[in-house]
Amino acid sequence: MAKAATSRVDKLLSSMGYGSRNEMARLAKAGGITLDGVALEDVSARLAVTEDLPGRMRIDGEALDPLAGMVILLNKPLGMTCSHKEAGPLVYDILPARWRRRDPAISTIGRLDKQTSGLLLLTDDGGLLHRIISPKRHVPKTYRARLARALTGREGEMFASGRLMLEGEEKPLAPAVLEVVSETEALLTVTEGRYHQVRRMFAAVGNHVEALHRERLGGLTVPEGMAPGAWRLLTADEIAAIFD
Ligand code: URA
Questions:
Q1: How far apart, in Å, do the first and last CA atoms of the chain sit?
Q2: Cβ of residue 198 lying under 6 Å from some atom of ligand 1
Q3: pLDDT tier, 203 (very low <50, low <70, confident <90, very high otherwise)
Q4: Which end of the chain has less neighbouring CB within 10 Å, N or C?
């Protein structure tokens, strides 16, 4: 069995956004850090960073946050931006405030536009992030689009052709699958993640997307009943389902 990594208590907590190492030392002195119910006073002590640590360690009486390697599924609401820096409401504002200070940082896996809602994943696992967004993996993403104009019936063939060019680009889009829901509503499944891809695809066939919602990413969908703005951590099985 692989040996668990170890870390100094102050370094671990600081990397999880709880505060500076000095602040962790002060918190420990005040009895605010416990392990298996016993106050842990020496923050220079090394701990085995094992999966069960969040269940055993309490900070100010609360269970330790998830360790590095988390994947979050968020039902993104409209009006929030997938950016660390831009002005206005950011998707990161939805998560606990100290998670903004974590190192490795939590980032969105790809982006949804400010005015796109639906399934958004976030992670602090850079390797996983790159595997999911890599065009070589062809992870399918399904969007529900409400359109300004009635579909003509020719869009499906054009999207599936592998020849559709987006304005200003040099490489045609990979084939995508269109499923017509009504005259002005469709599901579109793409395997790439180009800038504003779905909106630009419909613009390329003379239409305009009025509302856009991501319903599926790989084998994942937004869990039934999950309200816009709600989120939860994915299990290992759910993470594997991304590549199903
Ligand atoms: N395509 C878009 O146009 N916007 C998104 O947010 C996602 C895909």
A1: 28
A2: yes
A3: very high
A4: N
